[in-house]
Write a structure and sequence with these properties.
It is a single chain. The protein is mainly beta and about 425 residues long. The protein has three helices and 42 strands. The strands form seven sheets. The protein has a 15-stranded mixed sheet that branches. A hairpin with a 2-residue loop joins strand 27 and strand 28. It is elongated, with a radius of gyration of 24 Å.
């Protein structure tokens, strides 16, 4: 075992300089590391003791080696064979190949992470590689995430994650993991040929209470390629179906400002041969409404396009769309429902500013909990299992003054 300590910042004076860290070699740096070609192998560890950035250079990790630092800026990274990159901040190289290794970006001591300028960031995930972002990871430059097999995953966890990339191609699966989700800040193209799997929702704290916000998809055009129908590509649904059991949404409205319902901008299903299809699944409960009142979940989308000879098997799950449905005959297992896009509080979808029917529906559900007979899940704007001041504030912001009967504390206690 060899240990080398570098005190302060290190900058390579020669672009051809190569550091080779063999079996059980440890390099500890107290400052910023810039440049050079690093080959780290066989349980060796490069550690930034003060969690400073790594800038530029070519970094190759093999055989259970580890890099532990703050952020990565520019440079080329190749992470192989169970090697790990563990960052307290963000990953922003010029290219990243994860081939059986893993990259984890996380938050340190509650500090917000500020992403550097956007880089032309190409990500290739091969052979079971994993990229994980936990808490406050802000990714602004990832261009492509290409996985060669179904075991590769792109995972996000943490309530403050955001993703502003223009497009991702992931021939593995995209996953929102425990306490996490993806919040899209602008439009994005997402291309998937295996699974879109939602394992949990974004969780945030409000006044000491836990509020769950589903996986955020507004602004995403999702293109899914078929797989064989015996082992189909699958799309997890994650927003409540208000027409399940009791029809709380007879006018088929979709609130575009809802924190409970999230909809894809566009869903495109592409053909991949005979006996191939994409299948909707509801394997995970993603909101308190579906947990507490036992409602199923549904697919919400603006535009749906089923390419010629392609098939979307809805698997009995309802589909709501607000825009254009192209080749609806390619959808089996349900009849898509045309919905009306509006904002919260317009429960009947007529978009009238002063609407006694909407006000009455809100006041009837005012200050109720999900186990109360008068609870109305469509009125529960933030999907937290009750109708309280937060829902009232949103209704008032959208439609003006409304009078409610009395002050509401915590409806569920």
């Amino acid at each position: 075992s060899i240990v080398m300590n570098i005190l302060g910042d290190y900058t390579a004076g020669d672009d051809t300089l190569i550091f080779r860290m063999r079996t059980n070699t440890n390099v500890n740096v107290t400052g910023r590391t810039t440049g050079a070609d690093w080959e780290i192998e066989d349980r060796s560890v490069f550690k930034s003791l003060s969690h400073e950035p790594i800038v530029q250079g070519i970094w190759r990790l093999f055989d259970n080696s580890t890099v532990d630092a703050a952020t990565v800026e520019e440079g080329e990274w190749i992470v192989n064979d169970n090697a790990r990159v563990i960052l307290t901040g963000d990953m922003q190289p010029e290219s990243l190949t994860v081939d059986g290794g893993s990259v984890t970006c996380q938050e340190l001591l509650g500090m917000d992470v500020v992403a550097p300028d956007v880089f032309a960031f190409t990500t290739i995930i091969n052979d079971g590689g994993t990229i994980v972002a936990t808490q406050n990871a802000i990714h602004q430059g990832i261009r492509d995430a290409i996985a060669d097999n179904v075991d590769s995953t792109l995972q996000y966890g943490g309530a403050k994650n955001s993703y502003t990339t223009p497009d991702i191609t992931l021939n593995g699966r995209i996953v929102a993991v425990a306490l996490g989700g993806i919040k899209i800040k602008n439009t994005m193209e997402l291309n998937v040929s295996d699974k879109v799997e939602i394992n949990a929702a974004i969780v945030r704290k409000e006044s000491g209470a836990t509020v769950t916000i589903p996986f955020q998809t507004e602004g995403i055009t999702l293109t899914m390629e078929e797989n064989t129908c015996t082992s189909p590509s699958t799309l997890e649904v994650f927003s409540p179906d208000y027409k399940d059991t009791t029809d709380f949404n007879p006018d088929n409205v979709l609130f575009t400002d809802s924190e409970c319902v999230n909809y894809w901008s566009s869903l495109i299903i592409t053909d991949n041969g005979t006996n191939a299809c994409v299948k909707l699944v509801d394997n995970n409960s993603s909101s308190p409404i579906t947990d507490t009142i036992g409602y199923s979940e549904a697919l919400y989308v603006k535009d749906i396009t089923i390419k010629a000879n392609a098939e979307l098997n809805a698997n009995g799950i309802k589909i709501y769309y607000t825009g254009v449905l192209t080749n609806g005959s390619g959808i089996t297992g349900t009849t898509p429902i045309q919905a009306s896009a509006t904002v919260y509080g317009d429960f009947d979808g007529d978009q009238e500013e002063s609407d006694l029917d909407d006000e009455t529906r809100f006041t009837d559900a005012w200050c109720t909990c999900s186990d109360d007979n008068d609870y109305d899940p469509l009125v529960d704007w933030d999907c937290d299992g009750d109708v309280d001041n937060d829902d009232f504030d949103q209704f008032k912001a959208n439609w003006g003054t409304i009078t409610v009967p009395g002050v509401c504390g915590d409806p569920c206690n």
